[in-house]
Write a structure and sequence with these properties.
By secondary structure, the protein is of the alpha/beta class. 38% of the residues lie in helices and 21% in strands. It is built from nine helices and ten strands. The longest helix is centred in the first third of the chain and has 21 residues. It is elongated, with a radius of gyration of 26 Å.
Length: 259
């Protein structure tokens, strides 16, 4: 009787040990059918204002490809985003409109340049201010909008004016390129310097004028995951998606150039 009782007890202990071993592997680490860890949770992407349209589309497509994942965006001037990240904002990914602002972020992984962009003159439909080129930005009788010099589109504008030997006479300095574009689309200014991608995105409200000096200030856009990313797996997957053929197709269609 004693031997049967002892054997039953040992069997129960063995069964419990086997069950315990099976429960030590969390469900979140279970590979998906593709062999990669399944994604879940939220991904916080901090991106330059000029990426608003393309990244919004990329986010929707990414969520469709990964059900259960939510991509949250914070679009702003790259300089402002860099400051927010360095102050501890919970970002997983940073996409900057200039290497300078990416360099300011202290906890980034190695960045990858994924696109480049060029300035273009934006004017309201019909060009009521009769803008013909960069020289009109020196005419005090014209209403002119530029980006503030500390943001990438403003720094690029300074380069092109220096290359052209001109001194601009802006009536307003905007916090980012989307704000400058809004001034044009609302017919509040005669012209602004924005990216060609912004002109394309607002083609029903503005017109674009190319100018040769734009080649002197082509902006390189780097993207990186952050070392303190709350969702590192999601961050890497999103960056990989941006760099994929699907991501490149969306960015190219919006007017961005390959790096």
């Amino acid at each position: 009787m004693f031997r049967r009782t002892a054997f039953a007890a040992l069997a129960a202990v063995a069964a419990f040990a086997l069950a315990g071993c099976g429960s030590n592997t969390p469900a979140a680490s279970t590979p998906s059918t593709s062999g990669t860890p399944s994604l879940s949770g939220e991904i916080n992407v901090f991106a330059a204002a000029s990426l608003t349209g393309t990244f919004t589309q990329l986010g929707k497509d990414f969520e469709t490809a990964h059900p259960g994942v939510k991509v949250n965006f914070n679009f702003d001037a790259s300089s402002a985003l860099a400051q927010q990240i360095n102050k501890g904002a919970p970002a997983d990914v940073f996409a900057s409109a200039a290497p300078k602002n990416m360099d300011q972020v202290t906890d980034k992984n190695t960045p990858t340049t994924f696109v480049k962009n060029t300035l273009e003159i934006a004017v309201p439909k019909g060009n009521p201010g009769h803008i013909t080129g960069l020289k009109d930005f020196t005419d005090k009788s014209k209403k002119i909008a530029l980006c503030a010099p500390e943001v990438p589109c403003g720094a690029a504008a300074q380069k092109v004016f220096k290359a052209a030997g001109l001194t601009a006479q802006p009536d307003t300095l905007e916090k980012d390129v989307k704000a400058a574009l809004t001034k044009v689309s609302l017919d509040e200014v005669d012209a602004a310097l924005v990216y060609k991608t912004d002109v394309l995105s607002a083609k029903d409200k503005v017109e674009g004028i190319e100018f040769p000096e734009a080649s002197k200030a082509v902006n390189q856009y780097p993207i990186a995951t952050l070392t303190k990313a709350p969702n590192p797996n999601g961050a890497k997957a999103f960056v990989d998606y941006v760099l994929s053929d699907k991501g490149k197709a969306i960015l190219t269609a919006a007017g961005f150039d390959a790096p």
